[in-house]
């Protein structure tokens, strides 16, 4: 069995997935609140041969939780998270979490995400503002005030480290474990007039892409050498005419 041939093929499959992930990250480097994808690879051990052979798995994607850069916009409906935490909005199948705080208000006063989903408070209820009262004031704990009246509180949630995150749209994630409401705003909170960008590091992603391309070429060379060795063995050991 040409173990090196199959090991190199498994490496190419893994690197092809890695390259697709990098390309998607680069494509979303300017998407507000986007969380980059990372790939975790594991060793697959085969005992089919006389000696154990290690193969690369195809890889498993996971969502990076690194924070992105925060930009001042002075828009009263732009809100950035300071520290850990996520906003929540109402998705088709339950709450969806995001770091994208570029909100808007429709003609009915509903506070919506940039894609038009209702923003939720800490109790999971949608938030409504009074369109006639003008721009709101939003405090560190998410309290929304218009004039002298408190009209709602933007919910801030923590997602457990062991929860599995799956993508929803460009900047939303769904969690396998419901988010926990943030109650201590000493180290976490929100900041009005700012927005958080993508956490993709373009220089790092470009460096990764170059490394993956070189590794892919190296694996291709290994495959060619394995095939050449096999053909030489067949010509040498095969029956002579």
Automatic annotation (TrEMBL):
Compartment(s) of residence: Bacterial flagellum basal body
GO BP of this protein: bacterial-type flagellum-dependent swarming motility
Flagellar hook protein FlgE/F/G-like D1 domain segment(s): 80-145
Pfam families: Flg_bb_rod, Flg_bbr_C, LlgE_F_G_D1
Limits of the Flagellar basal body rod protein N-terminal domain: 5-35
Residue ranges constituting the Flagellar basal-body/hook protein C-terminal domain according to the UniProt record: 191-235
One Gene Ontology term, aspect cellular component: bacterial-type flagellum basal body, rod
SUPFAM superfamilies cross-referenced by the UniProt entry: Flagellar hook protein flgE (SSF117143)
InterPro entries cross-referenced by the UniProt entry: Flag_bb_rod_N (IPR001444), Flagellar_basal_body_rod_CS (IPR019776), Flagellar_FlgE/F/G (IPR020013), Flg_bb/hook_C_dom (IPR010930), FlgE/F/G-like (IPR037925), FlgF (IPR012836), LlgE_F_G-like_D1 (IPR053967)
Membrane-spanning residues: none
Principal localisation: other
Keywords annotated in UniProt: Bacterial flagellum, Cell projection, Cilium, Flagellum
Superkingdom per UniProt: Bacteria
NCBIfam families in the record: FlgEFG_subfam, flgF, PRK12642.1
Family recorded in the similarity comment: Belongs to the flagella basal body rod proteins family.
Assembly, per entry: The basal body constitutes a major portion of the flagellar organelle and consists of five rings (E,L,P,S, and M) mounted on a central rod. The rod consists of about 26 subunits of FlgG in the distal portion, and FlgB, FlgC and FlgF are thought to build up the proximal portion of the rod with about 6 subunits each.
UniProt protein name: Flagellar basal-body rod protein FlgF
Organism of this sequence: Microvirga flocculans
């Amino acid at each position: 069995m040409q173990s090196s041939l199959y090991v190199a093929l498994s490496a190419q499959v893994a690197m092809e997935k890695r390259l697709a992930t990098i390309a998607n990250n680069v494509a979303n480097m300017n998407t507000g609140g986007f969380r980059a994808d990372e790939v975790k690879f594991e060793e697959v051990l085969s005992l089919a041969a006389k000696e154990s052979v290690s193969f690369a798995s195809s890889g498993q994607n996971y969502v990076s939780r690194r924070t992105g850069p925060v930009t001042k916009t002075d828009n009263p409906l732009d809100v950035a998270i300071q520290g850990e935490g996520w906003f929540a909005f109402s998705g088709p199948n339950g709450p969806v979490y995001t770091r994208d705080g570029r909100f808007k208000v429709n003609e009915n006063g509903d506070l919506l995400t940039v894609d038009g989903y209702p923003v939720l408070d800490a109790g999971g209820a949608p938030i409504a503002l009074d369109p006639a009262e003008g721009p709101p004031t939003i405090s560190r704990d998410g309290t929304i005030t218009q004039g002298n009246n408190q009209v709602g509180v933007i919910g801030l949630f923590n997602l457990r480290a062991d929860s599995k995150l799956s993508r929803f749209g460009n900047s939303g994630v769904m969690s396998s474990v419901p988010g926990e409401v943030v109650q201590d705003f000493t180290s976490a909170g929100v900041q009005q007039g700012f927005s958080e960008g993508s956490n993709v590091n373009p220089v790092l992603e470009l460096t990764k892409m170059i490394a993956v391309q070189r590794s892919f070429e190296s694996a291709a060379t290994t495959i060619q050498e394995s095939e050449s060795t096999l053909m030489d063995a067949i010509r040498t050991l095969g029956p002579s005419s």
